[in-house]
Amino acid sequence: MKGGTFLKFLLVLLLIAAGLYLYVSIQLGPYGKGGTVYIPKGASVQQTAELLEQGGIIRSAWSFRGLARWRGVQAKLKPGEYQFEAGVTSREVLDKIVRGDRIIRRLVVPEGSSFAQIAALIEKAGIAPQAETMKFFRDPALLAGLGFPAVSLEGYLFPAAYEYDRETTAEGLLRQMLKKFQDSIRGTIAERAKQSGWTVPQVVTLASIIEKETGMAAERPLISSVFHNRLRIGMPLQTDPTVIYGLPNFDGNLRKEDLRNPHAYNTYVHVGLPPGPIASPGLASLEAALSPAASNYLFFVAKGDGSHFFSATLDEHNAAVARYQLGRAPSPATPAPETRPAAPAAPVAPSPVMKPVPMPRAPLPAPTPAPSRPLMKPVPAAR
Question: Which string of DSSP letters, residue by residue, matches 101-114?
Fold first, then answer.
């Protein structure tokens, strides 16, 4: 009897164990139609399990919590947004969260983007409102990380693709962009700037203007040469993107009165470079700023096909304006540049039109050089 009772008891235990095993297997087995679940930072294993159960990813929060504790990974669950396929097991779900295999998205910052445009991209990505990101425009802590004096973060957020997830903040993303900028200029560009007598902000400022003036890689050294030649002889840069940058409510139509607006970035009014960059230049524009083509060009005008016509004299330039902007008399092909910039015999009048120009303009009177903005030394062209 005693032996029979023991066997019955053992059999009952085995049946209970088998039933429990079957129950747990079912609870931890394939389940759900799939979907995404966001696990916030600091969520406990119980909170995580409940979120997964509510999201229809797992069948039982209790079983999932027990599995995590049995495997000793309660403290290894990583926050983030996770994508799960239909029919995953609780073990597969747990492994994915322990690995931190969360959803990663990409934010692409195009070359020539301004800080405000980057802030708008950050808002569109759902990371932070544009107004919140704009608060970092002159953030002292971020500016201190540059390692050199800068009026703002404009120009120093390197254009590239950046990964982010639900845990990414606007400040964290800006720090990524600043680090990318520093990594990109560290070495060659920074050293060449130093050897040429330029500061990094000066190089970035000129590069940002080049970036806004042309999207054609082959033209960047020529655009750069025009600005270098003007800087050398004390001629205003007269570049429209700098004027536009300083207009708080630009409506897309650049007017004559805008060209006379005395704001600090107006290179029709002030001689030399503006106080700082007007956009984030790419590596090619940074290179062009330090390596201008050897030319005697002082003018260029948009031809309407994305390229520009370059001129060394005002007469050549006005003829090109008549052809490409006004559709009048034909103009010859861009003359080949001299191997060395030639200083004009007489002072050169300011350009009546510079790219981009919606309407032809009359020449403006030559501005008086501003003593507070000294001219920069030209960078020798690469040979």
Answer: ----EEEE--TT--
* CA-based R_g, the chain, Å: 32
Q: Quick one: residue 379, left, alpha or beta (phi over 0 = left, psi -120 to 50 = alpha)? A: beta
pLDDT of residue 28: 52
Q: How many CB atoms lie within 10 A of CB 251?
A: 7
pLDDT tens digits for 43-55?
999 999 999 999 9
What is the Cα–Cα distance from 271 to 369, expressed in whole angstroms?
Answer: 5
* One-character DSSP codes across 169-204: -HHHHHHHHHHHHHHHHTTHHHHHHHHTT--HHHHH
Evaluated on CA atoms 281, 282, 285, 286, the torsion sign reads positive
- List domains and CATH numbers for the chain: 29-103 (3.30.1490.480), 105-185 (no CATH), 198-383 (no CATH)
Tens digit of each residue's pLDDT (9 = 90 or more) over 109-125 = 999 999 999 999 999 99
Return d(Cα 287, Cα 207) in angstroms, integer.
Answer: 8
Give tens-digit pLDDT for 233-273.
999 999 999 999 999 989 989 999 999 999 999 999 999 99
pTM value is 0.74
**Residue matched to tokens 């322990």:** 98
